[in-house]
Amino acid sequence: MPNPNVAENAAVYTRGEASSMSSYDVWLYSILGAVVVGLSGIFPLLVIPLEAGPSLKHGAAASRLKLMLSFAVGSLLGDVFCHLLPEVWSFIDRDDHKSHIKVGVWVIGGLLFFLIIEKLFGDETEFEVLQDTCDEINNQEHPDAEVMPKTLSSGLSETRKRKTIESDSINVFATQNGKSQRKHITNRNIPPSASDTNSSHIKVSGYLNLFANVVDNFTHGLAVAGSFLISYRVGILTTVAILLHEVPHEVGDFAILLRSGFDRWRAARAQFLTATGGVVGAMTALLSESAQSAEERTLWVLPFTSGGFLYIALVTVVPDLLAERHILESLKQIGCLLLGILSMVFVTLVFD
After folding, report:
1. What is the DSSP string of 1-57?
2. Dihedrals φ, ψ of 183, to 5°?
3. Kind and range of the H or E element at 200?
4. Whether 250 contacts 40, CB under 8 Å
5. Residues 342, 348: Cα–Cα separation, whole Å
6. Is 182 helix (H, G, I), strand (E, B) or coil?
7. Shortest CA distance to 130 belongs to which of 207, 49, 54?
8. CB contact burial 134-169 (16+ within 10 A = b; e otherwise)
9. What pTM was computed for the model?
10. Helix (H) or strand (E) holding 309
11. Is there a contact between 103 and 85 (Cβ–Cβ < 8 Å)?
12. SS3 content of the chain, % helix, strand, coil (to 5)
């Protein structure tokens, strides 16, 4: 959402520059700019070599994911306190105490809304945390874990094994009363493992994060369209600034979606759909009497989104980080968290 002083600074531009674009051009550039900003959510897919699946919950993959989640927490906190809330305060009279109270109420409302949704639709797996990355600790916590046999029948050749699998059946040996018995079980009768079932399960927190992104993209669409209504130059500068601001945010969002059960391509498709929020925001600004009036009517969106981001960062992600018992890994996570905050501070100071 652009600074309110932009409307006042519009007088600096000559009427020739402000009217150099036709109404069609303003609509075209505004919609394209909103779409480009919304598609920034696909950027992490191209640069982050992190695979999804059950392996993310254990070992080195879980360690890398926790570092990304730490960065996500920092970027969300930086976005809330260095960009979204200051943007709201810039629209409010410093002496208007009631307006400041309303901002606080909307932040609490967003936080409670996300809490209620997760309580209503979450299941028993919703609040699982990633396991500690130390294998020794895992072994101490599960001393009675069964060790699977390395081979079922070492005498079978590889060709025979493939034929056995292709015939949709397997041979296993079971021990009953001290005697080894051969049993024939079809694959259709084998229940799916817990890891297979959980790999396709999407947590509610992932959908909440996508909802928050849609609302956030809505405000970006307002900003882009409002800027193109002033001039082409201001529109381009605003679009580039928002894009640079969104890069660290989207990297964190990508990690949160992987944690919630999305695979890489489902996360990319979901982020693509959130771009529609930016298009709706741009159309809202273009159809309003003025971009400034549209911003004033939708001012509650920013604190509401801030509450949602705070919930995702502090309630959904931080418990995973608190479960870490390795001192070195904990220090790495704190470093990534600070890096996420600093990245948002840098982008806000340089480009806002």
Report:
1. ---THHHHHGGGS-HHHHTSS-HHHHHHHHHHHHHHHHGGGGHHHHH-----SGGGG
2. -125, 150
3. none
4. yes
5. 10
6. strand
7. 54
8. eeeeeeeeeeeeeeeeeeeeeeeeeeeeeeeeeeee
9. 0.67
10. helix 301-311
11. yes
12. 75, 5, 25
Question: Could you tell me which residues come within 8 angstroms of residue 190 by beta carbon, excluding any fewer than 6 positions away?
Answer: none
**Coil/strand/helix, residue 142:** coil
Nearest to 265 by CA among 46, 58, 56, 61: 46
Q: Which tokens belong to 113?
A: 């809304």
DSSP string, 221-244: HHHHHHHHHH-HHHHHHHHHHHHH
Q: Supply the mean pLDDT for the chain.
A: 74
SS3 156: coil
Number of C-beta neighbours around residue 295 at 10 A: 25
Helix 23-38 / helix 204-230 crossing angle, nearest 10 deg: 150
pLDDT at residue 337 in the model: 95
Q: What pLDDT, in 10s, does the model give residues 46-100?
A: 777 656 555 566 667 778 888 989 999 999 999 999 988 988 888 888 788 888 8
Q: Which of 37-51, 130-144, 256-270 has the least mean pLDDT?
A: 130-144
153: left (phi over 0), alpha (psi -120 to 50) or beta: beta
The owner of tokens 């920034």 is: 40
Task: Assign residue 185 a region (left: φ > 0; alpha: ψ between -120 and 50; beta: otherwise).
Answer: beta
Tokens 């996420």: give the residue.
340
Q: Residue 180 forms beta bridges with which residues?
A: 175
From residue 291, how far is each of 7, 30, 218 by CA, in Å? 9, 12, 13
